[in-house]
Amino acid sequence: MRLACLKTRADTSDIRNNSYTSKGKIIGLGVSGLVELSEEGYAIKSPWPPGSEDSLSDMRFEAKVYNYLDSHHRLIKVIDWDAEECCLTMENMSNGNLKDYLEKNNACISEPQRRRWILQAVEGLAYLHTKGVIHYDFKPKNVLLDENLEAKIADFGCSAFNGSRPTGGAGVRYAPPKGGNISSGVQLDIFALGSTIYAILSGKDPFAGVDSEEFGDRFWRCDYPDILEDVEMDKIVRNCWKGAYPSVEEVKRDIDGLSQRIASITLL
């Protein structure tokens, strides 16, 4: 299996050394895709490095996943697919990805906003699973924010659907250590969801500053990161990590219930 999602990120300086025709301002560069903002205001994702068979294959597969999925308000909208150049034209999410936004603005993000992102992330992931799609690389970096700070899931290059095998997986902190009881695709996505919820509420990755070996040791001892101030949400996160939820819908049920209780208290 080619672990595309775990490769080292490409260097933007490589662009000057390749015969590549720019489509606009560079706004993102990942493992196998370069994202540029066109003059028309769209985000265009092209295979990178240009001509790489792995990158071309990743782009074709991602386009196939988007084509399979129906339009949904929690998924980034695809405008066009250029099969000849293997380029996806998508709506531009002007506030970038959730990871970067948290790093830059964590001190001034309100609790209601954090809860909205959690609900939106859960809603999007639940929809994917109802369609039989496992993301396999769910994390704040792959949750994008539009001009209204609405969250939408993106980047399906590592996904699996209709029995296909994933081409990669999430990195450390968003995937469980090897050797545990979490192995199904659904459970792996739920684990990543728990880590994403933790990041949204705390503003940092779980086990931040801990190396991979210590991460595994602490995880299997149930020596989890500092308890979140929100005790009930902390319990939900830990249940995601423990594999206690059989489906994202079960996570959504608990979060919806918690949100309703908070809303009723606010109205008192």
UniProtKB/TrEMBL annotation:
GO-annotated molecular function: ATP binding; protein serine/threonine kinase activity
Name of a matching Pfam family: Pkinase
Keyword Transferase: yes
Kinase among keywords: yes
Highest taxon listed in the record's lineage: Eukaryota
Protein kinase domain boundaries: 21-268
Coiled coil location: none
UniProt keyword list: ATP-binding, Kinase, Nucleotide-binding, Transferase
PANTHER family given in the database record: MITOGEN-ACTIVATED PROTEIN KINASE KINASE KINASE 20 (PTHR44329:SF288), SERINE/THREONINE-PROTEIN KINASE TNNI3K-RELATED (PTHR44329)
Record protein name field: Kinase-like protein
Organism: Aureobasidium pullulans (Black yeast)
